[in-house]
């Protein structure tokens, strides 16, 4: 249906298309899937709801899914991450999309609802952070008369409840019917995957789920090397601050923390780490970073949360920070920093997604993207090349769920290693890497076959 979209300005489509053309040259994994499956159209009949940052890279993903035969409707999974020219180019291609950079929370949940509105209903979800999955499951619980509170993002609770109530009134029974028609979900990120395993543990997962995040070619690349490029990009575009010589604290040293610390260190900052896990704390130490308690490092210049956990930087921390300390989050949700506790302080908006907030003492902090992920709020997220690896996993996961869904139980799965290796292999040529071929003797000696997989399941990379 023409005009089935909400974007900032459809006239941005021309600019979007030019950037998309460049991105395609950096996304060899997706482009080779188009070549491999463009004729056979394995996703024919699939009606995919996408809830993932509406960026230029995502536009290449969307057009790949469509080229493989799918019908797609899209919303962003974050209020600040949309690139309006990327949304415009998708809308101009007659693919329904509902995303505007800076949309309100009410609009966010309304747009997510709209992304489900296929005339025949959706049958697959492609999720980032789990909001699309959450929406259907909470709604179905509400229809069954069950309590749907607390939801994970507590500050959004009222908005989510209101949106669910609206849909229940408009289309009674819709959530249950939709949940029962969904054949599976593929989930992009650590936080969303965490929710899926919780559902599985509690016997509440109503369809199979593929954990894309834990493909090696996703979390060990996107979360790490992606943040290595996009964290400092976000801080610079927001503040133009000189990072060399400054002290930066990175909270968390998982995959995103490792990339974030490398990003800041690469810019010349002196980086300190906080960690709760002794293994990651030891890794940080051996990588040359001082591992500290946040309370002991409040005289730093920059603070970045990367934990996927809540209440990491609290109000009492922000009150102790030096004047003009920069505070930002690169984890999925905004509850890593206690932004709600700042609401009754004096806010001065500097520009979009950059605010100066005055503490009772008179000292100020610069808060990026209101505590939402700053690499997508203040910059344009990860570069295309690394997103190609992530999204190639996403497309393979969708093909798997659509063509072999019956082989799966209602559990969380990781793509098999041969597909993980395939994703990596598709990206070698672009970086000029040449792969050594194992002789049959060598392969036998290390217990693999010359065609792979090259590592046992327990190998950790
Ligand atoms: P991870 O689980 O590998 O790392 C998180 C680390 O934080 C763990 O090592 C954990 O021990 C540590 N941690 C937990 N609570 C802590 C506390 N109170 N203090 C200090 N450390 C603590 O997770 P990963 O993959 O690094 O993802 C982190 C977050 O980033 C997730 O929300 C994920 O969804 C998100 N993400 C964001 C991306 C972006 O582009 N902005 C890209 C990929 C993931």
From TrEMBL:
Subcellular location: Cytoplasm
Residue positions binding NAD(+): 189-191, 223, 252-259, 275, 309, 330-332, 375, 382
Catalytic activity: S-adenosyl-L-homocysteine + H2O = L-homocysteine + adenosine
Keyword Iron-sulfur in annotation: no
Principal subcellular localization: cytoplasm
GO molecular function: adenosylhomocysteinase activity
Keyword Hydrolase among UniProt keywords: yes
Keywords carried by this UniProt record: Cytoplasm, Hydrolase, NAD, One-carbon metabolism
The S-adenosyl-L-homocysteine hydrolase NAD binding domain, residue ranges: 223-381
A biological-process GO annotation: one-carbon metabolic process
Pfam families (UniProt xref): AdoHcyase, AdoHcyase_NAD
Cofactor, how bound (note): Binds 1 NAD(+) per subunit.
Binding, substrate: 55, 128, 188, 218, 222
Domain of life: Bacteria
Known pathway: Amino-acid biosynthesis; L-homocysteine biosynthesis; L-homocysteine from S-adenosyl-L-homocysteine: step 1/1
EC number of the protein: 3.13.2.1
Cofactor(s) recorded in Swiss-Prot or TrEMBL: NAD(+)
GO CC, any one term: cytosol
Gene3D superfamilies reported in the protein's UniProt record: Adenosylhomocysteinase-like, NAD(P)-binding Rossmann-like Domain
Function: May play a key role in the regulation of the intracellular concentration of adenosylhomocysteine.
Protein family membership: Belongs to the adenosylhomocysteinase family.
Protein name: Adenosylhomocysteinase
